[in-house]
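Database export, one record per block. Field names are fixed; values are copied verbatim from the stored entry.
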Amino acid sequence: MKKTAIIIALALAPIISWSQNVFDSFENKRDVTSVVVTKNMIKLLSKMDLDSSDPEAQAYLNLVNNLENIKVFITENSTVSAEMDTAVKSYLSESNKLGELMRVKDKGQDIKFYSKEGKSDNFVSELLMHFTGNVDGKQTSVIMSITGNIDLKQISKLTSDLKVPGSEQLKNLDKNKNN
C-alpha cells in the first residue's frame, strides 16, 4: 500500500508542479526579459519604513503582505511570443479554476485577464494577464502572473509601479469582476 501511494505521488508530482511552473521556462530564454519577485522579496518590501498614517501607503503595504509571487515575462521575439501564446492556452486548459475576468482590444493591443476565485468578491488568489501588441513601435508579448491574496482594487498601483505593459487596464478590473 505504501509503495502504491509513493508511485501515485510521483506520477502526480509533475502535473501539480507543471501548473505552477509552466511560465518559468521563459525566465531563461534568450530574448525574454523577466522579473520574478519571490515571497522573500515581498517580505522585505512589507518591512519598508513607510508613513503608517498615510492611508495609501498602508493600503500598499497590506497588498504586498498578501502576495506570494509576481512573475513578468516580456519578449519582442515572434517565435518566443508564439511559445508564450501556447503556454497560456495550455495553462488555461489545464487549470479549470481560472476564468476570464476581462479582455481589451484597442489600438493593436490585445490584453486578457484571468483570475482564480479568492476569499471574497474583490479578491482573487491568482491573476494572470496575457498581453500582445505594439509597445513603443515594437510587437511585444507579456505574461504576468501574480499569486496570493490579491485585492483587485489595489493591484493596478503595484503593476503600474512595475511598468508592465497593459497594467493601465487593471484600473477597471475590480469593476468588471463585480459586474
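Remark 1: The chain has six helices and six strands.
Remark 2: The radius of gyration is 18 Å.
End of record.
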